[in-house]
Write a structure and sequence with these properties.
The complex is a heterotrimer of chains A (444), B (334) and C (301).
Chain A: H1 3-18, E1 40-46, H2 53-72, E2 81-87, H3 92-106, E3 110-112, H4 117-130, E4 134-136, H5 143-147, E5 153-155, H6 160-174, E6 180-184, H7 189-205, E7 210-215, H8 225-234, E8 238-240, H9 245-257, H10 260-263, E9 265-268, H11 275-278, E10 287-289, H12 305-318, H13 324-346, H14 354-361, E11 365-367, E12 372-375, E13 381-382, E14 385-391, E15 400-407, H15 409-412, H16 420-424, E16 437-439
Parallel strand pairs in A: 1-2, 1-3, 3-4, 4-5, 6-7, 6-8, 8-9, 9-10
Antiparallel strand pairs in A: 10-14, 11-12, 12-13, 14-15, 15-16
Chain B: H1 2-21, H2 27-51, H3 60-76, H4 82-104, H5 109-129, H6 131-134, E1 140-141, H7 154-181, H8 183-200, H9 205-231, E2 233-234, H10 241-254, H11 259-279, H12 284-298, H13 302-311, H14 322-328
Helix pairs in contact in B: 2-7, 2-9, 2-10, 2-11, 3-4, 3-5, 3-9, 4-9, 7-8, 8-9, 10-11, 10-13, 11-12
Chain C: H1 3-34, H2 41-61, H3 69-96, H4 101-123, H5 132-137, E1 139-142, E2 145-148, H6 149-172, H7 174-184, H8 186-191, H9 196-218, H10 228-243, H11 248-268, H12 276-287
Antiparallel strand pairs in C: 1-2
The chains are: A alpha/beta (444), B mainly alpha (334), C mainly alpha (301).
């Protein structure tokens, strides 16, 4: 081992002793295997500017915190980890050229890309071309593994189909007799695709449902007056919106102000990321999803010492509770560590090369801050889905979730080799009889 | 006279040699330069219109229309052939330039700028809205086309795109210079200084401006299709008004009115933008804005003007007398 | 399209048109006098909105009466307009009045880029929502649909006040007449001794304040995010070009056209909603090249 690594190990021991919290139990620094580099470098793309920075900033803060903890415990198999960030907000072209530069000039060992589905779509073939281990850590498009096979590209989270299907199942379980539905989605790929998936699933399971309005206001629209007036006139039983960020905030607040939320049941699959911001303006009885089993009061994790410590530390660092991008980046880091450890073991204790790490990703199971995720044979991750209904609790100055159901990933994810929309139209009533884990809100 | 031309030619040759040698050093720099040069073509188009004293805040629409034309042709022909894609893009941008130009050349100054803006925003909105056709905000992927029938790997393909773009740049730079020296090109300058007198001479100002407009649309389109094929994607974002503003920004940065300035400006801009966004992630827009202000306030001749001052040479035409030169060095005239 | 829906569409369009008018009228004033198309106008809108939200949050945190948020909106607008407007005009624009139109426009474009990052540095990236003024006024039921009083009454009322106020100001007060004079014929105004430098400053500050007021009044209705200025700029350009440069009444009419057009589109052809401002502008300009009320520019021979 080089002198530098030795010094680093000693320093790491010192830090580990001093660090008040860690994801792994505090331990002596591991000796890095033979052939190990001085550090592992990864590139992470996230929105650090623009409207989607509401996701990128917490993710970056979480990644920094988690990497610091990891390095304090010695790093990945004794090798410290360092992250370089690419701002997706600077545009798709910038992401692609920075991706190339990081791979070819900085010599990163792995890339985490991206938040934007558009960027994921473009980066995947590039990563395959460059033979770079690419972990899609947050984007929701279901298309990538359904349209082509990849060796180097993996997804450590679910995608739009299980997320929408779980929401449909929850809706049908809690409000089986509704008749009319309307959608107000942001007008871009996610908004269109997610509606397509949701509607296909809904029509397969409830063929007599009536769609009274399909509205796609422009992305970033500051004003939903006209849409709300129209819905107020139509009075649908259910209003769906897969919007997020400022757009969701505006839509919810304007709807609440004008009483639309008293008329219709709102279904907001991405609202977990807006709970704290919306405060008590988000009324009770709204169906909320978290793009996975992501919720800061995760019913199975609250009370776990490490989990609580992380949530508290995150709150202190950023002033807010963690939201789903935080959980997603934790999963990606955990997967990376797991892959390296697995590859080292398969390599007889010596440091693996990139091909061996990629091989180790197949079939990997890992856990971030929530339930375990597994990578199946088409490189897609199987992630359980949590959906709940809002209630108000005086202990918090924002709405929290009750009547939560966690859907098993295997039940709601498109099977290997199938195409999502075709598969969804074949679903039958047996989907409504699935076994799910249910939880109630238990307070702080 | 001969001395001035030599200086100009020397600069151009030096630039070309440097650029040709650079990729032997860094792979990803090739792609960056290719895209910068392609944008330089669009800026060249802007420069032609600046000669006539008009600014277009909508040329991103030709850049984007051409890129999407290439994307569609590529998709319909299962990958396609490089020169067919480029030809399609160029044809579409020229046609669009003619269709819009016929209306737009009736207007001047602010209305010219705003109408171009309006049309480009219409295109932007259509590209974003018609999700099922254009892929919406995700855009369309452009798979690597064959080159003269040969299928190439990524690295050789990037070399081809680089040298092709470089070749087109050199050829078109020469061509545009010739055009600007020709009567039609000179007529553009007359549109700026005194349009009515031009008409008294029997030339139609609109006709002269239309020719310039279509030419600039074709240049922007060529840049757009080249950049997008290199990048492998076309997104609606490239039609947004801020992109058009960037073209104008680069024209001023490089030194409005000079052909070399368009490309020097584009290369510098892309370089600064990439590094600023990478290292000053929070404030790169501010950095660019400050640079633009500095150029306008202190170095209105742009990069070429700075180079002139540093080398003491006259790199553009014009008088050596500083008072006369200052008068001549107004935007777009030389 | 039933009468009921048409009525609803009109109501929705009014509030939107009111906001757009406030921003556009400032832009058209500035162009009329300074002959500069201020690309940074959208930034005044955004910063006015953010400052109003911040003041609202401060008022709530200080435990003061929530009704103070109304004057806070006006205060935010005035602060942004005077401070930022004066700063930009004196420190930057003053040096480029003699330069080419292109360069002047690019200076404002550079200011826009800088202010976009300033917004992000000061207020961060998380969406802001301060709806206290809106909540205080409650709802009104019209045709079975609930509207907020703020949207239906306050916004159009303020826009109307500004329209009337500006008309009076420009026609009856001395400062207003000077501004009108400089708009009509800058050279002649200078020749008779008008201090054009002062007129420029006052006009720019008024224009900036109006834009900031638009933003401040918009802030209780919507979520404030980075980039809101950029979208507003293009919309105001469309209104100003449709109206004719320097035309205050024209801006009101154009804003109304575009606002109503947009909200009717949501009911009739939702997919075309985003295209409405540009289509209106293109159509108007094709028929009347100087804008609806524009004055044909004299040509030099």
């Amino acid at each position: 081992m080089s002198r530098f690594s030795r010094i680093l190990s000693v320093a790491a021991v010192g830090l580990a002793a001093a660090a008040p919290l860690a994801l792994a139990p505090p331990a002596l620094a591991q000796d890095a295997p033979e052939g190990a580099p001085e550090e592992l470098v990864i590139g992470i793309t996230a929105f650090l500017s623009g409207p989607a920075s509401v996701f990128g900033e917490p993710a970056q803060a979480a990644a920094d915190m988690l990497i610091e903890e990891l390095n304090a415990a010695g790093g990945v198999a004794g090798v410290p980890l360092r992250a370089l960030y690419v701002d997706e907000g600077a545009g798709g072209e910038h992401v692609l050229s920075e991706y190339r530069r990081l791979v070819q000039e900085e010599g990163v060992d792995a890339m985490f890309a991206s938040i934007s589905s558009g960027n994921c779509n473009q980066v995947a073939p590039l990563a395959e071309d460059l033979q770079m281990l690419n972990i899609m850590w947050d984007c929701g498009t279901q298309r990538i593994f359904e349209e082509a096979d990849y060796r180097y590209v993996f997804r450590t989270q679910a995608h739009a189909t299980p997320e929408m299907l779980a929401t449909v199942l929850y809706l049908l379980r809690t409000k089986p007799d509704f008749q009319t539905i309307a959608v107000v989605n942001q007008d871009y790929a996610w908004g269109r695709d997610s509606w397509n998936i949701f509607l296909t699933a809904l029509q397969a399971l409830k063929p007599d449902v009536e769609v009274v309005a399909e509205l796609f206001p422009a992305f970033g629209s500051p004003d939903y007056s006209a849409e709300i007036s129209r819905l107020s006139a139509l009075r649908p039983d259910v209003v769906l919106s897969t919007a997020w960020g400022g757009d969701l905030d505006t839509f919810v607040l304007q709807s609440a102000q004008r009483g639309l939320m008293d008329i219709s049941t709102f279904v907001l699959p991405l609202a977990e990321s807006s709970l704290e911001r919306l405060g008590t303006d988000l009324p009770e009885g709204v169906i909320v999803g978290g793009r996975g089993d992501h919720y800061f009061l995760h019913p199975e994790k609250v009370g776990d010492a490490d989990y609580d410590a992380f949530v508290a530390a995150f709150r202190e660092q950023t002033g807010a509770f963690p939201i789903y991008p935080v959980f997603h980046v934790a999963q990606a880091l955990s997967a990376l560590e797991g892959a390296y450890l697995g590859a080292i073991e398969a390599n007889g204790g010596a440091w693996p090369d990139r091909e061996q790490v990629v091989d180790a990703m197949a079939g990997l199971t890992f856990a971030g801050l929530g339930r375990e995720v597994m990578i199946r044979e088409d490189n897609q991750g199987l992630e359980d889905q949590l959906v709940g209904t809002t209630v108000h609790d005086d202990a918090y100055d924002f709405a929290v979730l009750d009547n939560m159901m966690i859907f098993d990933a295997e039940d709601v994810t498109t099977p290997v080799g199938a195409e999502s929309v075709s598969w969804l139209s074949t679903l039958g009533p047996e989907m409504l009889e699935l076994e799910v884990d249910s939880f109630s809100h238990t307070g702080p | 006279m001969a001395g001035r031309l030599n200086a100009q030619a020397l600069l151009a040759v030096a630039a070309v040699v440097l650029i040709a040698a650079a990729p032997l050093m860094a792979q990803w720099v090739k792609v960056l330069l290719t895209i910068a040069l392609a944008k330089g073509l669009a800026v060249l188009g802007i420069m032609i219109l600046l000669r006539a004293g008009q600014v277009s805040f909508g040329h991103a629409m030709f850049y984007a229309a051409s890129a999407y034309a290439g994307a569609f042709v590529g998709r319909w022909t299962g990958g396609g052939e490089l020169f067919v894609l480029i030809g399609a893009g160029l044809a579409v941008s020229l046609a669009l330039g003619l269709a819009i130009g016929v209306f737009v050349v009736r207007y001047r100054y602010i209305f010219f700028a705003m109408l171009n803006l309006a049309f480009s925003m219409v295109l932007f909105s259509i590209l974003e809205k018609f999700f099922h056709v254009t892929g919406g905000s995700d855009g369309m992927r452009i798979a690597r086309p064959t080159v003269l029938g040969m299928e190439l790997e990524r690295a050789p393909f990037e070399y081809v795109m680089f040298y092709l773009t470089l070749g087109l740049v050199v050829g078109l730079a020469w061509g545009v210079r010739r055009y600007l020296a020709s009567p039609l090109g000179q007529a553009l300058a007359a549109v700026k200084s005194n349009e009515t007198r031009l008409e008294y001479l029997g030339m139609s100002a609109r006709h002269a401006l239309l020719v310039g407009y279509v030419l600039s649309a074709g240049l922007a389109g060529l840049g757009g299709v080249l950049a997008s094929i290199t990048q492998g994607l076309a997104t609606p974002e490239i039609a947004y008004w801020v992109r058009s503003g960037e073209f104008v920004f680069i024209a001023i940065l490089g030194g409005a009115g000079t052909v070399a300035g368009a490309f020097a400006g584009a290369v510098v801009y892309e370089g600064v933008r990439s590094y600023a966004a990478a290292y000053f992630a929070d404030i790169w827009q501010m950095v660019l804005g400050a640079v633009l202000l500095a150029i306008i306030l202190f170095a209105p001749g742009g990069l070429v003007g700075l180079a002139e001052r540093l080398t003491g040479r006259r790199l553009r035409g014009g008088s050596a007398d500083p008072a006369v030169a200052a008068d001549q060095a107004r935007v777009g005239e030389r | 399209m039933t009468w009921q829906l048409a009525f609803l569409a009109t109501l929705d369009g009014l509030a939107y048109a009111a906001l757009v008018f406030m921003v556009a009228v400032g832009l058209t004033l500035i162009f009329g006098v300074l002959r500069i198309l201020n690309v940074a106008h959208g930034s005044f809108y955004a910063i006015g909105a953010y400052l109003a939200a911040s003041l609202g949050i401060a008022i709530a945190a200080g435990g003061l009466s929530p009704w103070l948020t109304f004057p806070a909106l006006i205060l935010a607008a005035v602060l942004v307009g005077t401070i930022l407007g004066t700063l930009i005009e004196r420190a930057l624009l003053r040096y480029v009045y003699l330069k080419e139109d292109v360069l002047q426009l690019l200076v404002t474009f550079a200011v826009f880029m800088i202010l976009e990052d300033v917004q992000r540095l000061v207020w961060g990236v998380n969406p802001y929502f301060e709806a206290v003024p809106l909540r205080l006024l409650g709802n009104i039921s019209l045709g079975g649909i609930f509207y907020t009083n703020y949207q239906i009454l306050v916004l159009p009322a303020v826009a109307l006040l500004i329209l009337v106020g500006l008309r009076l100001f420009l026609r009856t007060t001395l400062a207003g007449k000077l501004i009108t004079a400089v708009t009509e014929d800058r050279e002649m105004a200078t020749a008779i001794g008008v201090d054009t430098g002062r007129v420029y400053l006052i006009t720019f500050v008024i224009g900036a304040t109006l834009a900031a007021l638009g933003g401040a009044l918009a802030s209780p209705t919507t979520s404030l995010v980075p980039g809101m200025g950029a979208d507003m700029i293009v919309l105001s350009f469309a209104v100003v070009a449709t109206a004719g440069l320097g035309q205050v009444e024209g801006a009101a009419l154009a804003a109304l056209l575009i606002g109503l057009g947009r909200s009717f589109a949501v009911y009739l052809m939702p997919e075309l909603e985003v295209l409405v401002p540009y289509l209106v502008m293109a159509l108007v300009l094709l028929v009347r090249p100087e804008g609806l009320f524009g004055v044909a520019q004299r040509r030099r021979i």
